[in-house]
Amino acid sequence: MQRSPVVRARGITKSFGDVVALDGVDLDVASGQVHGLVGPNGAGKTTLLGLLLGLAVADSGSLEILGTPVGRTLAVPDGVAGFVDGPGLYPSLTARQNLSALASLRGDTPAAESAPESAPDSSAVDSALEQVGLTDVADDRIRGFSLGMRQRLGLAAALLTTPRLLVLDEPANGLDPAGKRHVHRVITELAANGTAVVLSSHRMDDLAALCSEVTVLATGRVVFSGPLSKLAAESGELDYRLVTSDPAAAHRVAEGAPGLSVMPGRGGPDADVLVVRGPVPALDELVVRLVRGGVAIRELAPVVTPLEAAFLALTGAGDVSGRNDEGDT
After folding, report:
1. Among 33, 91, 237, 303, which has the minimal tally of Cβ within 10 Å of its Cβ?
2. Euclidean distance between the first and the last CA atom of the chain, given in angstroms as a whole number
3. What gap in Å lies between CA 296 and CA 291, rounded to an integer?
4. Are 85 and 99 in contact (CB under 8 A)?
């Protein structure tokens, strides 16, 4: 079944003085899809997210959101929500008061005629807080909130609008494992109900867990856009950690395996860890040879995940065989 398009961008350009932030960017996002946006620092991700939220306008190209052409004004159709560079919040107010204030600014009022005309819909506020797991701290002032709690409150603010397009900038930033699982579950459920989600992240594990498609930007240009599985397939040769019951025997077998290279000194401080480089079929053959030789395999895992390796190769951000220092994108 073909999903209806929520975002359709063609040839989008955006410059700030002499700096070209976006250079002929195309983007397609369908309803019910979680679409990842990744790239190194300065790639143009924040600028593109800002265009989707109506915080900036393109210099040229065409952009349609929810079937409506977006012109040269700071406006997007109803049904778009999210945040860039973290949510804007009032630190002196509680979580509940923040959401109530936002609802009042948008003119959201309860249906009951007996309610004060200016009062926001408290049930919608309570529901949003519950969705992101902040009910227990709803009446705490957010000046004491952690980064992860602020991120979740920003997501709650976006949920107040029942968005058809949700735009999120590093939604898992600062979250502990439990909080990240909670946010992942909210995003997954939104997509299952037809909401299109565009999110930026520098964490490949978040992309793998959430996204069906991804767009990779480098210096303002799209270097890849498509299914996540296709991106992973473009990782090529990887380094793999190999831990066995007999390191010396494993080293001899690996040296004789076709298509593999044994990497000197890549095992770290543990001399029993062997690091080999090669494509997946060569690793399969190595496993067969080790088992035939009576060598038990205790660990075989990529030093860098296939998704991260593909990202580094496409953007020229570093050696695809080893781990780069992780940083914001």
Report:
1. 91
2. 34
3. 7
4. no
- Using the 8-state DSSP alphabet, how is residue 66 labeled? T
Tell me the per-residue pLDDT of 70-95, one tens digit each, with 9 for 90 and over.
Answer: 877 777 888 999 988 878 888 899 99
- Is the pLDDT confidence value at 279 over 60? yes
Domain ranges of the chain: 5-232, 234-315
175 and 151 Cβ atoms separated by less than 8 Å: yes
Q: Which CATH number applies to 5-232?
A: 3.40.50.300
Cβ contacts of residue 302 below 8 Å, gap of 6+?
238, 239, 240, 241, 309
Statement: residue 266 has pLDDT above 50: yes
Q: What fold is seen in the domain 234-315?
A: Alpha-Beta Plaits (3.30.70)
Residue where the block lists tokens 């037809």: 194
0.85 exceeded by the pTM? Answer: no
Say if residue 114's pLDDT is above 60: no
Q: Which residues pair with 133 in a beta bridge?
A: none
Residue 26 contacts by C-beta under 8 Å, 6 or more apart in sequence? 9, 10, 11, 12, 222, 225
Spatial CA neighbour of 296 closest among 280, 264, 272: 272
Asked if pLDDT for residue 260 goes beyond 60, the answer is: yes
Nearest-angstrom CA–CA distance, 289 and 307? 27
- CA angle (62 as vertex; 56, 64 as ends), nearest 5: 80
Q: d(Cα 74, Cα 58) in Å, to the nearest integer?
A: 10
Crossing angle for the helix pair 147-159 and 177-192, to the nearest 10 degrees: 20
Identify the three-state secondary structure at position 239: strand
CA angle 177, 178, 183 (to 5 degrees): 95
